[in-house]
UniProtKB/TrEMBL annotation:
Belongs to the binding-protein-dependent transport system permease family. OppBC subfamily. This is Nickel import system permease protein NikB. NCBIfam families: Opp2B (NF045470). SUPFAM superfamilies: MetI-like.
Length: 313
């Protein structure tokens, strides 16, 4: 296990190096002049040239990238062109909202997905199975922005049960919990549908295995057959889907944050791209990439606890 963690950390560093190079290169060749965005419409050509010189934008690409990489290793990701705020500080302020939204969405997805998948598998070819598979198809097909707008219209505007958006209050308060409900459902529905489909297919495969039939033939209670012999062995592909979806949720909250006016990393990234605020874009992308790889490492570790037969060489 220690060998696995060390190897994955090394892979993480190499992956982040490649991602940083690609992101920095994309920002370098992207249309638009950061100096013009900073100087504004009243800046003269001399002012723009002075800004480029101060920011090091006149240096060759490899020189700029090497300087950025050296600073990033020390935890310095630069400063926002627009707000002059440290990139690390700007992300630190927004990241808790994104993390809360991703965790809440994942809870919604896991609860709904596992329950729907189990019911569908245990009542195979029944109306419950048909209802569950229809829900899964609808959950995958419905776009987040449409579902979010619909939920706002029904529950926030018409019924006025829940707030329209924002995560201004702590999640453990009543108001903060209410603010999380609609965006969590909006973001978690698609993941719930995928988890439900994977749970159903994995359960149907395992429930036909010889050891399950043997357990039933020996008189083992049905509840124990399901929860001990079947579900645990069916969880490996489900855990994979859960881990991948959580990684995507951490970096894929952009649309939901926009719809519900949540000040998260996704919204920060979109605004930074629109303003050609390259340091903010690079820092946000590196954060998302790091989180995605870390989540996958955690999934690999969880495998060994769910199924001790899995060994990493």
């Amino acid at each position: 296990m220690i060998t696995l963690i060390v190897r994955r950390v090394g892979e993480l560093l190499l992956l982040l190096l490649g991602i940083s190079f690609l992101v920095f290169g994309s920002m370098y060749i992207a249309p638009g002049d950061p100096a013009s965005m900073i100087g504004g419409p009243t800046a003269t050509e001399a002012d723009l040239e002075n800004i480029r010189e101060n920011l090091g934008l006149n240096d060759p690409f490899l020189v700029q990238y090497g300087r950025y990489l050296g600073n990033a290793v020390q935890g310095d990701f630069g400063y926002s062109y627009q707000t002059k705020q440290s990139v690390a500080d700007a992300i630190a302020v927004r990241f808790p909202n994104t993390l809360k939204l991703a965790i809440a969405s994942m809870v919604v997805a896991v609860v709904i997905g596992l329950v729907a998948g189990l019911i569908s598998a245990l009542r195979h070819n029944s109306w419950l199975d048909f209802t569950s598979t229809t829900f899964a198809l609808a959950g995958i097909s419905i776009p987040n922005f449409w579902l979010g707008a619909l939920l706002i219209l029904v529950f926030a505007v018409n019924l006025q049960w829940l707030p329209v958006g924002g995560l201004s209050e702590p999640f453990y308060t009543a108001e903060g919990f209410k603010q999380l409900i609609l965006p969590a459902i909006t973001l978690g529905t698609g993941s719930a549908a995928m988890i439900a489909r994977m749970t159903r297919s994995s359960m149907l495969e395992v429930v036909r295995a010889d050891y399950v039939r043997t357990a039933r033939a020996k008189g083992v209670k049905e509840t124990k057959v399901i929860w001990v012999h079947t579900l645990k062995n069916a969880m490996i592909p489900v855990i994979t889907v859960i881990g991948l979806n959580f990684g995507f949720l951490l970096g894929g909250t952009i649309i939901t944050e926009k719809v519900f006016a949540i000040n998260g990393v996704g919204r920060l990234m979109i605004d930074a791209i629109a303003m050609r605020d390259f340091p903010l874009v690079q820092g946000s992308v590196l954060l998302v990439a790091t989180l995605f790889v870390v989540v996958n490492l955690i999934v690999d570790i969880v495998y060994t606890y769910v199924d001790p037969r899995i060994k990493y060489e």
